[in-house]
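Key result, reporting period 2: structure in, sequence out.
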């Protein structure tokens, strides 16, 4: 059940895309975020899986770094000008299906001139965008997560619990006194541990008749 599809170019800051996947997955869960290198199972047609995930998503996050617009293939031709380019096709499908297509700029807002984009992608230049910068990554990501929760109700409201977060206290009625009332070290006299007589010091309820 994919709600967020991460569209990124492997020749343009792929580690930043992986970082976004890590943080969004931590917030929303792995099934809610599609990241090709993680989400496509071994032996599956990755092209089929990728475009099926775009179709199933609510939002397509287009990760735009400094080389996204100018990245070229082995023939020297700009990749975005190739109708077979997968990044281009992902975005085209998202726009055609009226998904929430959201440009996510890395480090700074990279100006997208409509005239520099293929005609099928020119709408991308008019989309409200956001920025995730290295030195400001925590508040930038928090802002992105908040906006996504608001725009995609299926993502839920509360953030995922962070490692080491406080756990709810156990129900006192469920606590076993036999393990709760323990004494370590020498004790003079008689002790009752877990209501079992092992000396004259009583822990918990004093046994009747003593």
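The corresponding designed sequence is given below.
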């Amino acid at each position: 059940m994919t709600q967020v599809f991460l569209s990124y170019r492997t020749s343009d800051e792929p580690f930043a895309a992986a970082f976004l996947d890590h943080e969004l997955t931590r917030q929303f869960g792995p099934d809610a975020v599609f990241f090709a290198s993680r989400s496509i199972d071994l032996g599956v047609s990755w092209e089929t899986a990728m475009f099926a995930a775009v179709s199933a998503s609510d939002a397509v996050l287009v990760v735009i770094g400094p080389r996204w617009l100018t990245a070229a293939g082995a023939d020297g031709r700009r990749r975005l000008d190739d109708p077979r380019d997968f990044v281009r096709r992902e975005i085209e499908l998202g726009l055609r299906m009226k998904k929430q297509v959201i440009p996510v700029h890395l480090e700074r807002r990279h100006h997208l001139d409509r005239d520099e984009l293929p005609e099928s992608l020119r709408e991308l230049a008019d989309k409200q965008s956001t920025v995730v910068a290295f030195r400001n990554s925590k508040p930038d990501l928090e802002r992105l997560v908040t906006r996504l929760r608001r725009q995609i109700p299926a993502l839920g409201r509360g953030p995922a619990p962070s490692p080491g977060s406080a756990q709810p206290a156990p129900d006192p009625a469920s606590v076993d006194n036999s393990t709760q009332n323990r004494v370590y070290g020498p004790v003079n006299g008689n002790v009752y541990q877990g209501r079992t007589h092992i000396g004259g010091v009583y822990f918990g309820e004093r046994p009747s008749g003593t």
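The first strand starts at residue 4 and ends at 7. Residues 165-170, 174-207 have pLDDT under 50 and may be disordered. This case is discussed further under Risks and Mitigation.
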